[in-house]
Backbone:
């Protein structure tokens, strides 16, 4: 009987601990550009902050934002070790096009395909572009909707604040 | 007794701890959007007191709440489309209430969802439920879904339910939808292929709808209907280094409906693509063939109502205001299309690449009708689409003569230095106004567009963006119009447009834009559409205020299009999330 109780208690404790996840990343599986499945809850940057940005091929400001981030990316990585995960919310019409599109533009980000807006809904994104900054534990520390020319600098200021 | 008490005590403690967990460990998030419009009379574009009908104010919005605790997630969405004009929405969206709710438990091996489900099998050819707020579109499935992942790389899904049909009660008549899907990612499930250069994923799905009616009566003709309509699809994705190949093929048994004029032909669809890409260069070729693939959970439904399957359009999606007035929408009854796209970046530090590289893009897409030959019934040839027959015969590889849409475009984008950025684009467009917008007998649009954009960065935060566009139409000012059909000419003739935007990153933007249909064949239609906007962004909150004239046209997002009437007024949009 005691054993059973102990087991029960232990079970609840484990469940409680498991429930108190510190991450803001939902348990959703998307594909990357190689067709491999990626569980969003597991993405990280080895304990360092990372960025997640939502975009679409038909979204002009998103392309501008990505071009701007692409221009400064090498410097940012060198300075802060940041990593950018870029989530395309294009639907099936563009699935086959994203890889050539991204490669053709020379974007260096880790691209994920959210073909039915599952992650977009879970992250409460209304319209692209929408950018999140996560700390090393996967907690959202900053987010921003829309992109205006030069806006990447404000993101960088936020990154600097949390990277030591 | 003691035992029971003890267990009860432990349970109570555990529950208390658990309840505390719900408060401390769980996470509440959500988002809101509110749109308000105030319309006014504008005789220049025929908006009169009568056409407004006293409804000057339109408001709509939604609020979404989500709760997550470990593997458990639940959410609700409240929608309110308060008043009728809501420029461009289907009148049936009017209403308010909790449109959507769900609860999911997913531990990685097993996932169960009850409530309103959004999902997609493969490319969505035979099953896709989604919502697009900006279009007032939602075909979510209310029911149950189970996901089972027995081992790494293998996923099975099964679902069952009824689709959302605006605000019509779920108790009222419409079909049941049932589906299963399986996907096998070879690289994840076979150790030898883990991390291999060769990538492969296979998938297959089966979807069936059930409707209780056994017949459809039209006058004295009675059509016997299949109560269960099955559709199945298979897909493959292959990759080897820089090369990618993917294909999906779907078939559907006979499914007579109001949409296909009650013909008994089977449906089929093929979507395939081949791509090559390396850093700095990407190429993709896509082909598609659709034959009688409208698949709805109510056989009398029309337009975009109650679609179970999704037919991805494969043409280029234009975002500039003049070409986007001529957006293609897919033809579920039949189309054959292809698209070829190249993206290339001229490397940095070369003569043409300059300091930052030069980005080039080329796109060719064309969509034709399929070929339809008449069939014989009891030895007698019947007209194509004769109700009650198989409708027609269509050779798989023969392309129909009628061109619905063709788009050839070329874009060059160049960052000249830290201050200047230049984008130029040329588009040649063929657009079947009759087929795409239903203006029967209207002449096709054969147009050329030029687009230029300059961005000047004044300093780190301040930028000015100027956009110029022009459209040359094949119908000019002196065109001999058909006076019986003024609707043929609403957006015809030459257009010129400009936009000036001043932005202060990351918070503020102001813009003023004009579209001028100076070459319209009807002199009364030669109107200016001037709009001004101002917006404020703070983190995840965005407030935008705009005023002026909106031109009539097609607004398309994610494969669904909606006709927006001309309007005049002010509107405010607020979005936020937490």
Residues:
């Amino acid at each position: 009987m005691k054993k059973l109780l102990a087991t029960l208690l232990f079970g609840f404790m484990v469940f409680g601990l498991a429930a108190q996840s510190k991450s803001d990343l939902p348990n959703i599986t998307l594909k990357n550009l190689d067709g491999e499945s990626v569980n969003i809850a597991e993405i990280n940057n080895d304990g360092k902050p990372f960025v997640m940005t939502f975009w679409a091929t038909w979204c002009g400001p998103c392309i501008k934002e990505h071009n701007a981030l692409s221009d400064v990316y090498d410097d940012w990585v060198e300075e802060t070790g940041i990593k950018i995960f870029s989530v395309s919310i294009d639907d099936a019409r563009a699935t086959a096009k994203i890889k050539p599109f991204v490669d053709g533009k020379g974007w260096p980000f880790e691209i994920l395909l959210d073909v039915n807006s599952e992650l977009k809904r879970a992250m409460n994104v209304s319209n692209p572009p929408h950018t999140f900054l996560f700390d090393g534990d996967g907690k959202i520390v900053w987010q921003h909707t829309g992109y205006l020319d030069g806006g990447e600098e404000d993101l960088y200021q936020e990154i600097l604040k949390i990277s030591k | 007794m003691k035992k029971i008490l003890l267990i009860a005590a432990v349970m109570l403690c555990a529950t208390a701890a658990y309840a505390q967990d719900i408060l401390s460990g769980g996470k509440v998030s959500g988002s809101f959007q509110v749109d308000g419009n105030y319309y006014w009379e504008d005789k220049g574009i025929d908006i009169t007191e009568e056409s407004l009908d006293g409804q000057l104010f339109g408001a709509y919005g939604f609020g979404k709440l989500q709760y997550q605790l470990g593997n458990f997630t639940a959410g609700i969405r409240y929608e309110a489309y308060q008043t009728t004009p809501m420029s461009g929405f289907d009148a049936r969206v009017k209403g308010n209430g909790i449109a959507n709710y769900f609860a999911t438990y997913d531990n990685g091996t097993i996932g169960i969802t009850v409530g309103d489900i959004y999902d997609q099998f493969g490319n969505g050819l035979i099953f896709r439920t989604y919502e697009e707020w900006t279009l007032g579109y939602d075909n979510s499935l209310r029911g149950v879904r189970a996901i089972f992942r027995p081992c790494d790389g293998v996923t099975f899904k099964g679902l069952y339910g009824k689709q959302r049909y605006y605000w019509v009660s779920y108790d009222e008549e419409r079909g049941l939808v049932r589906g299963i899907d399986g996907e096998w990612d070879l690289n994840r499930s076979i150790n030898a292929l883990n991390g291999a250069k060769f990538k492969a994923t296979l998938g297959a799905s089966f979807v069936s709808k059930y409707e209780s009616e056994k017949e459809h009566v039209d006058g004295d003709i009675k059509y016997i209907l299949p109560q269960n309509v099955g559709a199945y699809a298979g897909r493959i994705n292959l990759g080897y280094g820089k090369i990618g190949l993917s294909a999906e093929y779907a078939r559907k048994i006979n499914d007579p409906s109001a949409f296909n004029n009650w013909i008994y032909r089977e449906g089929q669809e093929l979507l395939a693509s081949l791509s090559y890409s390396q850093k700095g260069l990407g190429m993709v070729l896509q082909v598609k063939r659709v034959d009688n693939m409208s698949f709805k959970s109510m056989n009398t439904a029309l337009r975009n109502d109650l679609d179970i399957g999704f037919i991805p359009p494969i043409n280029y999606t234009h975002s500039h205001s003049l070409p986007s007035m001529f957006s293609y929408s897919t033809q579920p009854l039949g189309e054959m299309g292809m698209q070829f796209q190249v993206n290339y970046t001229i490397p940095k530090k070369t003569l043409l690449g300059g300091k930052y590289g030069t980005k080039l893009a080329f796109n060719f897409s064309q969509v034709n009708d399929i070929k339809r030959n008449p069939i014989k019934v009891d030895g007698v040839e019947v007209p194509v689409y004769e109700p009650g027959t198989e409708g027609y015969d269509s050779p798989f590889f023969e392309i129909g003569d009628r061109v619905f849409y063709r788009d050839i475009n070329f874009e060059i984008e160049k960052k000249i230095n830290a201050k200047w950025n230049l984008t130029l684009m040329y588009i040649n467009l063929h657009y079947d106004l009759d087929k795409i917008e239903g203006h029967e007998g209207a002449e096709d649009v054969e147009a050329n567009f030029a687009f230029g954009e300059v961005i000047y960065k004044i300093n780190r935060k301040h930028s000015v963006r100027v956009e110029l566009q022009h459209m040359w139409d094949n119908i000019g000012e002196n065109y001999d119009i058909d006076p019986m059909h003024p609707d043929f000419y609403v957006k015809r003739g030459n257009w010129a447009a400009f936009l000036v935007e001043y932005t202060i990153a990351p918070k503020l933007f102001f813009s003023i834009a004009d579209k001028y249909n100076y070459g319209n064949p009807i002199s009364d239609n030669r109107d200016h559409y001037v709009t001004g906007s101002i917006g404020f962004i703070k983190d995840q909150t965005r407030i935008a205020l705009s005023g002026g004239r909106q031109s009539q046209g097609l607004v398309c997002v994610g494969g669904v299009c909606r006709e927006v009437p001309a309007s005049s007024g002010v509107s405010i949009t607020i979005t936020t999330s937490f």
Notes: Residues 264 and 390 of chain B are 5 Å apart (CA to CA). The mean pLDDT of chain B is 89.
